[in-house]
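User: Some background: our group keeps a shared notebook of sequences we're curious about, and every so often someone picks one and asks for a predicted structure to add to the entry. Today it's my turn. The entry only has the sequence so far, pasted here. Could you supply the structure so I can complete it?
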Amino acid sequence: MTAISAFLRRGGQILGVAAFLSSAIGAQAQITPPRTPVYPRAAPPLTDSLQQNQVGEAKEFANPSVLGQGPSKGLIFHYERTTGFGITSDSKSDDFTDQKGTVSNNDRFVVKGYIPVWNRPHLKMVVGVNYEREEFEFKNRPTGYSLYDELEEKGLKTLGTQLVVLRPINERNFVLGRVKGELNGDYTSSELQLKDYLRMSYELVYGWKKSPTFAWGIGAQLGYTFGRRSIYPAIMYNRTWSDHWGVEALFPARVLVRHNASAKSLLFAGYDVNGLSYILKLREPLPNDPTLRTVELRETELKLRGRWEREIYDFLWFGAEGGYRYNNSFDVFDRRNGRTKVIDNKLAGTPYFSVELFVVPPRRFLKK
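Assistant: Of course. Here's the predicted structure to add to the notebook entry:
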């Protein structure tokens, strides 16, 4: 019996050592990075559609991030400007007249922030806030056209908040959801009313994490990306092919090819489709229809874009972007029923450029 017990003990030790070596080899195979390590850790896509991994990630559970993506953005300051372009307004109602004009420049200023509020292996949550202002400057002002003059005097504003939830199911699957509410319009602080300007949008994606360099998913979005509120499919595709090349996409709204020039410099090229719905309140009643006091402006644009991101300091990055903006719609609708178009606006395509500063987690936090 003593010999048998010793044999069993020695066999158990051998099996334990073998199991340990097998586990170590398997773990090493899972965490081996690309040949050229890419710092910092993966970030969410460049739009605010999917900001799920702002809250961190657990190694044993699936998430949409892939190796090679840029740094996670916590606080963003963005300024964008176009060159001059023409605008043609074709009236579809007796309440308005036809008009042509020239926009000297179109400016946009954006501030965004993301705060992790819950970080557990099976549930991660982020709260985001954003403020945006779009301004138009017309030549020969006042133009004598109510729409143009109101756009220049008050601008278009967006004040929003969102909740993003990442639910890892296991090592291979995850569910990603987002609920966003925004106040969109030409309001001032004294006349802001929640029920008049609130716009809600929703997203849901079911995904698969195939490897540390490949994640994809399918789902749907209900929002204003294409101008009017509608539901459309969404295909998420994040993949890193090599140490220097990858793609980040949420088709059909966005596709970007990424080039990792170095650990501190990234280049992007691709397109974005953006859309918003703004509420505009007319200051003066219309002669032919005094009851029409509120209209809806639906905007959709396509941007062909190139972008460069570069680390300035440990926690501070700089972004520069340029490209061509094609405006698909900038139309005005009767707010009373939401279906009657009263002005068909055509905005000429124009080059644009933007600069951006954003704060990322310091390296010492990522190493913990």
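Suggested note for the entry: Helices lie at 2-31, 146-154, 194-197, 363-366. Residues 2-31 form the longest helix (30 residues).
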